[in-house]
Amino acid sequence: MGGRQAQERRATSWRARLRPVDRQILALALPSLGALVAEPLFVLVDSVVVGRLGTAPLAGLALAGTVLTTAVGLCVFLAYTTTASVARSLGAGDRARALRLGVDGLWIAAGLGAVLAAALLATAPWLLAGLGAPAEVLPHAVAYLRWSAPGLPGMLVVLAATGVLRGMLDTRTPLWVAAGGAVLNAVLSVVLVLVVGMGVAGSGLGTAVTQLLMATVLGAVVVRGARREGIGLGPSGAGVLHGARAGVPLLLRTLSLRAALLLAAWVAAGLGTVSLAGHQVVMAVWGLIAFALDALAIAAQALVGRGLGAGDVVGTRAVLRRTLQWGTGAGVAIGLLLAPLAWWLGPLFTDDDAVRRAVALALWIVAVTLPVAGWVFVLDGVLIGAGDGRYLALVGLATLLVYAPAAVAVRTWADDGAVGLAWSWVAFAGLFMLARAVTTGLRARGTAWMVTGG
Questions:
Q1: pLDDT tens digits along 377-410
Q2: Is the separation of the CB atoms in 408 and 414 below 8 Å?
Q3: Residue/partner pairs of 440-448 with CB below 8 Å, 24 or more apart
């Protein structure tokens, strides 16, 4: 009897310790999810408005928008590095250093954004023509890219400032700014495109203005905190070097992930029209699901960074276990929801029965593999929060090398249609994600990533 009571007391004590962790995870993850979902509304609204101008302008927006989002996506390390470094410094009790790193992160983002903006402004016609823009589409694509490019410094400052605030366990401010930006972008898009008559250029200008204003608001929050701590607002050589050194491995990691996504699209294109169309639908659903799992990864980044900065190894392990439970549980829940909906999602995008069948079968594959994806996303966040970017860069290349032969095999031997697309997603959502789960899981079981202190 006594043994049973002791077990019950231990279980009650364990649950009591987890409740604060659960509250922290949800307090960070839910606003992060809202902010992540708000960003795609920019593209959706622009597409709806520009679509009223005709097919060629919409195609130009699609091509130029892909270039812009790719450039910004490759720079997501700006958010990751600032989240980890700021959280670790705050955990160590050094708020001044946290804000110093935050200010330097803003300078890196602004400088990199200016360079990218100048490059796109100068090369837009040749870059878009090289991507295969038809003659009637090219002027619209160039107009959008050139008018939106000046907003790139703002877009990257938004990433860096959001990372700073996440590191300070504030995910609500980025949520409100993202929501306000989505509304402002919608208004500007309608006014500039349809009322003023700027066409696709108006959509690009609206995006640039919105992003610059968002950067101003978020940057002001960071600057205000720095001033309260007596931190200078100019860049520091040591801080910029630290940010660059931490950012390069995460950039390489991001490149490996982008390469895997491009490889999956290459496979679908090689299989045929049905598979490629189906892949577009499945990838859209996958991207939406990724937002939910990314929100948990963001919570893991901030909590792990702060825990290690404070030297709290036991607490960090508790965060690791609990966020993994949340991640895999979310994967199971979303998978159970997705599986019965798989057949019904295809008709929302196409009337082609062959594409519908391909979408349904591939989405069932995705549903089965989502618990693994939840595990991977969270562990990515844990290791990013720990500042373990070099390891993630190395295993990013390794997992890509595991996935590539399988992708080539599917493209070579599979047929167009439902079965071929299913095999493509077995390779991507199954093999590739499993390889990432193994490599990150082995790392998390050890202690090499648990470097404590500021």
A1: 999 999 999 999 999 999 999 999 999 999 999 9
A2: no
A3: 440/376, 440/379, 440/380, 440/383, 440/392, 440/395, 441/375, 441/379, 443/379, 443/383, 443/388, 443/391, 443/395, 444/320, 444/379, 444/382, 444/383, 448/388, 448/391
CB of 242 closer than 8 Å to CB of 185: no
Q: Residue 303 has what pLDDT? A: 94
147-157, pLDDT tens digit by residue? 999 999 999 99
CB distance 344 to 312 below 8 Å: no
Secondary-structure percent of the chain, ordered helix, strand, coil, rounded to 5: 90, 0, 10
**Does pTM top 0.70 for this prediction?**
yes
Question: Which tokens in the block code for residue 266?
Answer: 């290459």
249 token code pair: 């491995």
Q: Percent of the chain, pLDDT > 70?
A: 95
Split at pLDDT 50, 70, 90, the class of 208 is very high
Tokens of 260: 């895997």
**CB-based contacts of 363: which residues, under 8 Å, 6+ apart?**
282, 285, 338, 339, 341, 342, 345
What pLDDT sits at residue 14? 46
d(CA 212, CA 154): 4
Task: Check: CB of residue 86 under 8 Å from CB of residue 163.
Answer: yes
Q: Residue 397 is which amino acid? A: L
User: How far apart, in whole angstroms, are the C-alpha atoms of residue 211 and residue 220?
Assistant: 14
pLDDT at 38 over 90: no
Check: CB of residue 291 under 8 Å from CB of residue 37.
Answer: yes
